[in-house]
Amino acid sequence: MNLRLRITKKETNHYNTRTKIKHLFAVIDLDRSKLYPQNFVSVLPRNIKAIVKPANAFEGLFGNESLEMANQLLKKALRSRPDSETTQAIRERLDLLNPQLNNKTKCQNCGKSIRQSKQRFRPYKFCYICHSKGF
Q1: Torsion angles phi and psi, residue 84, rounded to 5
Q2: What is the domain partition of the chain in residue ranges?
Q3: Is the Cα dihedral 9, 3, 94, 62 positive or negative?
Q4: Terminal CA-to-CA distance of the chain, rounded, Å?
Q5: Neighbouring residues of 57: CB distance < 8 A, sequence distance ≥ 6
Q6: In the list 23, 38, 66, 126, which could disulfide-bond 62, CB 3.0-4.6 Å?
Q7: What pTM does this model have?
Q8: Mean pLDDT for each 10-residue chunk of the chain (135 residues)?
Q9: Quick check: 96 and 46 in contact, CB under 8 A?
């Protein structure tokens, strides 16, 4: 399979005041055909989760290698695109695929990392296991 990314810009008007540009990422296979509609494989998702049940068609096709395949396709597209708006959109998509480590703290008792919720006013001090033990 000779996979590539096809990135298209879509402009939408917001309340007749501003134009918003949206980038659409499609995964295509050049071995099938050279024309776009015939060589379409799937849409590149924003989030790829490591769960058993695939959440979208891209995860269903590539399985456990979907995160590595998405990173590889985006990095290959980043090297071949000279347009600054497109490279910025590719970099944003790469940042979305990388794991988020900035909202984690460590448990005061056992030292495991805890994911902080944005909805809570006070940060967590203990993990769920230590909290259920009564520390």
Answers
A1: -70, -35
A2: 3-97, 104-133
A3: positive
A4: 54
A5: 42, 43
A6: 66
A7: 0.63
A8: 87 79 88 83 79 75 84 90 85 80 75 74 81 81
A9: yes
